[in-house]
Design a protein that fits this description.
Chain lengths: 194, 1033
């Protein structure tokens, strides 16, 4: 049966689709809550060594929280886009909180350079990618979106192309360059090209 | 980084990737024009491009999950540095796995290395461990609690300290807490009683030893996998630090916030507060009766699914506990026995002197209630023991034995005949699912529907009818069909009974129950239950339960046995697939075919042998005009038809003949057999009246079948729509109007199905306002807007307003494309081209037809395009399409008896050979009045007649030609607003000219010119007609 946030999320997605930007503001925390719960479940499942897939998780969430009767395909793309963004926040918030604890309450935020001095690991890398993506978004918004959708949202090339309304080839081109650029940023070698 | 710099990097990067690796250095040298920084940058990018298995190549969440395996934390703010890695040794315990815990203490599964048994190791929060007084109190309490030895109390083995951490080792339990079990859903009375008797017994034992729990709440009550209750954290309550934020509460009275045992749900102040007794809040010296109050609050919540003292602010909760009586449990859950309500009320007495005085008192009351309920259930209990985990053959034999036994006892007990007759219908309520597993929510009801639809005896109120009735009840379409709602639907649809189902989990087993309740007097007609050994056997058990209830409701044993394909053979062994399928059915009736497609498709992905899901996928694609996709999936369903029940097989076979082979004779035969086997099924009547009979031109019979479909289910909009089409084809506009009024009465006029016949009716009545109203109303209905626009285009063309027609066609194409309906888009484009060609605009016709063929190569699009090519004198292209149709549809009634004769005749006419044309049209004679599309509206009806008229004209057989065109004008309900309906006047005029009957010819020309008085002046057909008319003057 449909749960109560369903109607709200569906209505907000529709409103957003009609161009109501405020709807997005209301939508985001709702999806965040749902996704956070789902991710948490997923991570504890992961601990028992089961495989998990971000898209499966988001699909499941989508089926659960969105009233499919009332949303169009475009809403679905929007939904995936929001989920990818939220997943990025959830994971980076999580690792950021861990870093605070390690470094004491005084720490404000972890920047790319700061995180480099922290212990290596997935958490550090995710935070670094998050920061680098912000930098990338400033010069090339779409490439940062491609990474967000694929890496944080777990979307396939085809799904990404549907969300961004560009061809799969364009997504692949964007992905190749963004990936190489991020890896080069992560590796710490940053020959200055600016 | 500057954007232009970035762009430069991007260009060179992609260019470099195309260059062989060995030559890249040179390439970069040239491309960077000596800009060293740029070159380094690109070298680095290209090097990283070749990184294999980088962090970016797995989704972030998976990386996070994997990395957390190693440090043992979960995505929870409170978890973190304190987590212990696997295999850490604490005292003599080896840590195995973290089980959960929030900020108030962490629990691990660990191995006792001395005794080699699993234990749950709970560490106290640091603030307790560091408070020496609290720690001492904790030890004292824990030690006395460890003396407790009762099967329903989680045993404390050991209390210890290591590395400055205080911990307790206790019995390791597998299962869930009551908090998770209940989570907003009441437990079934029987399970509730079993568990609460055990809890009362455990409380009694502890109280006898002078130990009070002080913190009885759902999170502290555990249900093990084998269905036993266990009280957690006995005696630990006193040890915890008091509510730091609620200092008004005395230390001795405070329950612990650490008592969150073996699960992950972090405890909270509010969670505990809701179950505290009034004396706890008032900081009075506590005795055992405090636990009985808390137990009462737990019972209340378990029975109703709602907290007795809810609230999100401490003061509100406290006020409720001290001063308010919670609402009557039976108002929240009518299934609760009166006696249980009394027991709960007595436990919740605010004055402890009026409350149960001991746990044994409440246990006795609970036990007495259980005994009374059990003896009432004696009959069914006996047989559920028999059922169990036997294999299919055995369960069949046993079912027969049990059914025989039951009908014998039934006779002795009730001395009355069958409960229902084959004239009655029943309503399926939603299953009451207390397992907490959402998988069972929709799927069981759907599974039961599949089971029961096999029965020629029982007739289930359809999903459409339920939606319609909910609509009349002013309820939302997705309203849960609780027993009450179902009963109202039952009464409103004049059905006989409601079938209520439930599923509960008992340990690892599942208990399925079905009960049929008369909606007239609310009395139970029959009930059945079955136990499934595990989740994989739930569908099996459902089948057995359904067979039982069929027989108990009066169906003959022979019939039950004959029509009883087990669910997992009949439909699917996958609960998930069944669930998606049932969502699709629901969406189909609430929203429409387009929205339902993803669900049916998902069902086929989950079970690639799910015949009925393919069939529904085929049908829904057919409904939105995608005949190509419809054929693919219907064929697949047909291949898998052996995996369907008898009733499903009729559906699949009919669909196959309609959608795939197009053999309407076979489809008709199959529908007749279907009606014989299932006289109360409405679908075969729908197929007959909507598709098969119209194609055969038998509109009288179609009207009869549609009338029968309406009678069988007066709430299904499609049937009204089909009846309207039949009457329209028969030119009985008054009857069509009356049918429309009937639909309005049933509040069905907003359904998309009735839009097109309503439009055609308005057209035939010359009701321009009526047509515009429909255009407006359809604008908000995706999936129907394009059809109405398509009709508007035809109407404009009928009056010669060709520019308007083009615009409407364009909008229809756009609308269909927006709705992602390719084939309808192609159809509108093809019809638009056909119109241009018929009116003499060959140049305008070609691009439209070309665009249609790019979008779709379906049967109907190919045909319309081919006809257009013949009118545009492009025989070569028309022949290619004709040959393809001949090859692809050898059995298709429409293609063989309508499309191909028309095309071959048109080709012969273009070659100037009318005799050959007339010969080619001979096969079309029997079905020439028939509709020509497998959807519900005919759009190229009577072309054989029109082309025959043209052939006679060319052969200079004037009288014969006139008769053909006259035939078209006599059947306005078949041609409606098709362009040939207007051009028939012109054909008739020419026939009269040929005959030398100038007067009649003049009238016919005038009729045509009157029709086209507002026509665009530059249409070749018009200028030619005017010239011919002028010559007559």
């Amino acid at each position: 049966m449909l749960s109560s946030p369903t109607h709200e999320i569906t209505a907000l997605l529709q409103a957003w689709n009609r161009g109501d930007e405020q709807a997005l503001e209301k939508l985001t925390p709702l999806i965040y809550d749902e996704l956070h719960r789902a991710a948490k479940r997923c991570l504890s499942r992961g601990q028992r060594g089961q495989t998990l897939q971000t898209t499966a998780l988001i699909n499941e969430l989508y089926l659960r929280v969105v009233d499919m009767n009332r949303v169009s395909w475009q809403n679905r793309a929007h939904f995936f886009a929001i989920c990818a963004r939220q997943m990025r926040w959830i994971l980076t918030d999580f690792y950021r909180a861990k870093q605070y604890r390690k470094r004491g309450a005084g720490a404000e935020r972890v920047s790319l350079n700061e995180s480099a001095v922290l212990s290596r690991g997935v958490g550090r890398d995710l935070l670094a990618i998050d920061e680098a993506l912000k930098e990338l978004a400033a010069v090339d918004e779409r490439k940062s979106q491609v990474v967000e959708l694929r890496f944080f949202g777990g979307l396939s090339v085809k799904e990404t192309s549907e969300v961004l309304k560009v061809s799969p080839d364009t997504v692949m081109r964007d992905w190749k360059l963004a990936r190489a650029w991020l890896l080069s940023e992560l590796s710490g070698q940053k020959p200055d090209a600016t | 980084m500057q954007p232009d710099r970035w762009q430069q990097i991007e260009e060179i990067f992609h260019a470099a990737l195309k260059v062989e690796e060995s030559r890249r250095t040179r390439f970069l040298e040239q491309a960077c024009h000596g800009d060293q920084a740029l070159r380094h940058r690109l070298e680095s990018l290209l090097a990283h491009h070749h990184d294999k298995e980088s962090i970016l190549d797995s989704p972030a969440l998976e990386l996070a999950a994997q990395s957390l395996v190693s440090d043992g934390s979960v995505l929870d703010e409170s978890a973190g540095p304190t987590a212990l890695p696997t295999d850490t040794i604490i005292s003599h315990y080896r840590i195995r796995q973290k089980l959960g815990g929030g900020g108030m203490g962490v629990v691990y599964k660990a191995e006792d290395t001395r005794l080699h048994r699993n234990v749950a190791l709970k560490f106290l929060p640091d603030n307790v461990a560091h408070d020496s007084q609290a720690l001492a109190r904790f030890r004292r309490e824990a030690q006395s609690a460890s003396a407790l030895n009762h099967p329903n109390i989680c045993t404390i083995y050991d209390v210890g300290e290591a590395d400055g951490k205080a911990f307790i080792a206790m019995e390791f339990l597998d299962g869930t807490t009551l908090k998770e079990r209940v989570a907003e859903r009441p437990l079934e009375t029987e399970i509730l009683l079993t568990l609460s008797i055990e809890i009362a017994d455990a409380l009694n034992a502890a109280h006898s030893d002078g130990i009070i729990h002080r913190d009885i709440k759902p999170a502290n009550l555990f249900v093990t996998k084998d269905g036993r209750a266990k009280i957690l954290d006995f005696g630990l309550a006193k040890a915890g630090p008091i509510f730091e934020k609620h200092e008004d509460i005395a230390a001795t009275a405070a329950p612990t916030l650490t008592a969150d045992a073996q699960v992950t749900n972090p405890g909270s102040v509010l969670g505990t507060l809701s179950y505290m007794s009034p004396e706890q809040l008032q900081a009075i010296q506590l005795d055992a009766r405090t636990d009985l109050f808390s137990f009462g609050a737990v019972l209340y919540e378990t029975a109703t699914g709602k907290k007795a003292f809810p609230g999100n602010v401490p003061t509100l909760i406290q006020d409720a506990i001290l001063h308010r009586t919670p609402p009557s449990p039976r108002n929240l859950n009518s299934e609760i026995p009166k006696e249980l309500e009394r027991i709960i009320a007595k436990a919740l007495e605010k004055d402890r002197e009026l409350r149960y005085q001991t746990a044994s008192e409440i246990r006795t009351d609970l036990q007495r209630l259980k005994r009374d309920l059990d003896s009432a259930k004696l009959l069914t209990a006996a047989k559920s023991e028999l059922a169990g985990e036997t294999r299919k053959l055995w369960s069949l034999i046993l079912a027969v034995v049990v059914l025989a036994l039951l009908s014998a006892t039934g006779y002795l007990y009730f001395r009355r005949g069958p409960k229902l007759t084959d004239k009655d219908t029943i309503v399926l309520a939603d299953f009451t699912n207390t397992t907490g597993d959402a998988m069972f929510d929709d799927s069981l009801r759907q599974g039961l529907a599949v089971e029961l639809e096999q029965s020629p005896f029982l007739s289930i109120v359809s999903q459409d009818q339920i939606q319609q009735t909910l609509h009349m009840m002013d309820q939302k379409p997705d309203t849960k069909l609780t027993p009450e709602v179902a009963r109202e639907i039952c009464q409103r649809t004049a059905s006989a009974a409601v079938l209520n189902g439930s599923i509960a989990q008992i340990g690892t087993q599942y208990l399925l129950t079905l009960s049929a309740i008369s909606c007239v007097n609310g009395k139970s007609l029959a009930s059945a239950e079955f136990r499934a050994s595990d989740k994989d056997h739930v569908l099996d058990a459902l089948g057995s339960t359904a067979s039982q209830i069929r027989s108990k409701l009066g169906e003959s044993l022979a019939s039950v046995q004959e029509f009883d394909t087990p669910l997992e053979q009949a439909s699917t062994p996958s609960l998930e697939a069944l669930r998606s399928f049932s969502s699709g059915r629901r969406v189909l009736s609430t929203t429409g075919p387009a929205a339902a497609i993803p669900f049916f498709r998902h069902a086929t992905e989950l079970d690639s042998n799910f015949a009925l899901a393919y069939a529904m996928l085929g049908r829904t694609y057919g409904d939105i005009g995608e005949s190509g996709m419809a054929a693919v999936y219907t064929r697949r369903a047909y291949e898998l038809r052996d995996r369907a029940s008898e009733a499903e097989r009729y559906f699949i076979t009919s669909s196959f003949h309609i959608t795939v082979t197009g053999d309407m004779d076979k489809a008709e035969q199959n529908c007749e057999l279907w009606i014989q086997a299932y006289p109360r099924a409405e679908l075969p009547h729908t197929f007959l009246s909507g598709i098969i009979l119209p194609v055969l031109g038998e509109y009288e019979k179609a009207a009869e079948e549609a009338t029968e479909a309406v009678r069988l289910n007066p709430n299904f909009p499609l049937s009204y729509s089909l009846l309207m089409f039949s009457y329209i084809a028969l030119n009985r506009l008054d009857k069509a109007q009356a049918t429309d009024d009937q639909a309005v009465q049933h509040k069905l006029d907003s359904s998309a199905f009735v839009f097109i016949p309503q439009y055609q009716l308005a057209f035939l009545k010359n009701d321009a306002a009526g047509m515009s109203r429909l255009v407006e109303r359809s604008a908000v209905k995706p999936g129907i807007e394009d059809q109405v626009l398509g009709e508007e285009a035809e109407t404009a063309a009928f009056y010669g307003r060709l520019r308007d027609a083009r615009e409407f066609s364009r909008r229809a194409v756009d609308s269909a494309e927006r709705a992602e309906e390719k084939e309808p888009a192609a159809t509108y484009s093809a019809l638009s081209g056909l119109r241009e060609a018929l009116f003499g605009n060959a140049e305008e016709a070609r691009p439209r037809v070309a665009s249609a063929l790019e979008k779709s190569l379906s049967r109907d699009v190919q045909y319309a395009s081919a006809v257009a090519f013949t009118y545009a004198s492009d025989n070569r292209r028309a022949q290619v399409l004709e040959a393809d149709l001949t090859k692809k549809f050898p059995q298709d009634t429409i293609v063989q008896f309508n499309y191909l004769p028309v095309l071959r005749a048109r080709l012969a006419l273009n070659r100037g050979n009318p005799a050959e044309a007339l010969e080619a049209l001979r096969p079309a004679t029997s079905y020439e009045l028939g509709a020509t599309t497998s959807s519900t509206y005919g759009w190229t009806g009577m072309y054989p007649v029109f082309v025959r008229g043209e052939a006679y004209l060319l052969a200079r057989q004037a009288a014969e030609a006139a008769a053909e065109f006259q035939k078209i004008l006599e059947h306005p309900g078949v041609v409606v607003n098709e362009p040939i309906a207007a051009l028939a006047h012109l054909g008739l005029a020419r026939a009269y000219v040929l005959q030398g009957d100038t007067a009649k010819a003049r009238t016919a020309y005038k009729d045509f010119l009157a029709l086209w008085k507002d026509a665009d002046p530059d249409i070749p057909a018009l200028t030619q007609a005017k010239a011919e008319y002028a010559k007559l003057q």
